[in-house]
Design a protein that fits this description.
Elements (H helix, E strand, L loop, with lengths): L1 H19 L5 H24 L3 E2 L13 H19 L4 H25 L4 E2 L4 H51 L8 E4 L4 E4 L1
Antiparallel strand pairs: 1-2, 3-4
Length: 197
């Protein structure tokens, strides 16, 4: 039963990758994916070592204490969807949409903990799951907010840089041609035309 559920999760997660990652903002989505993987596996390791939770049935149990399917694939994919759905929303809408992710996931984990050996909770409850999911969601969303502000600040600089290159090209030609020459080439960058006098 547990192995079948894990296989289904593997297949569905890999099948969803082309639909989750869009070409627009692909670099940001990949950053979110890997950041969430690091965050989830780090937090999971802390709780496993403190013996609050455990994963009796998991992929590669001799190598990993955590369930790498959840931490490095499933949760990161959900985080990319979360960022896509809240990228341009107001804080109140972002908080509301977080419940669309955290509530179903908390209930699903609670049911699976009761019915299967995928999760075993020790000194843990559905409330802990709800809080930890929201913590990671808002941590990633805050990280994306910082990236968004950083890219906004650097966009004008990029435009100025490109304009500066054209200006330098104009200066180079101005310096190469003799100043007393009867012919002068004037590069008009904005009109993108060369006028011969």
């Amino acid at each position: 039963m547990e192995r079948l559920l894990l296989r289904l999760l593997w297949v569905s997660s890999f099948a969803s990758i082309p639909f989750v990652f869009k070409r627009k903002n692909l670099l940001m989505y990949l950053t979110v994916f890997f950041a969430k993987g690091v965050l989830s596996s780090s937090i999971d390791s802390i709780f496993i070592k403190s013996k609050r939770i455990e994963y009796p049935v998991r992929p590669y149990p001799k190598i990993f204490d955590t369930n790498i399917l959840y931490d490095l694939l499933f949760y990161p994919l959900l985080s990319v969807l979360w960022v896509r759905s809240t990228y341009n929303t107001k804080p109140s809408v972002t908080i509301l949409r977080s419940l669309y992710f955290s509530v179903p996931m908390s209930i699903a984990q609670w049911i699976l903990e009761k019915k299967t050996n995928l999760f075993k909770w020790k000194s843990w409850s559905i409330l802990h799951t709800f809080v930890s999911i929201n913590f990671t969601l808002f941590t990633i969303r805050g990280f994306v907010g910082l990236l968004k502000e950083w890219t906004k600040e650097n966009k004008p600089a990029a435009k100025q840089k490109s304009t500066g290159i054209l200006s330098r090209l104009n200066d180079v030609f101005a310096n190469v041609l003799p100043t007393n020459s009867s012919k002068r080439i004037d590069f008009e960058i904005e009109n993108k035309e060369a006028v011969k006098v």
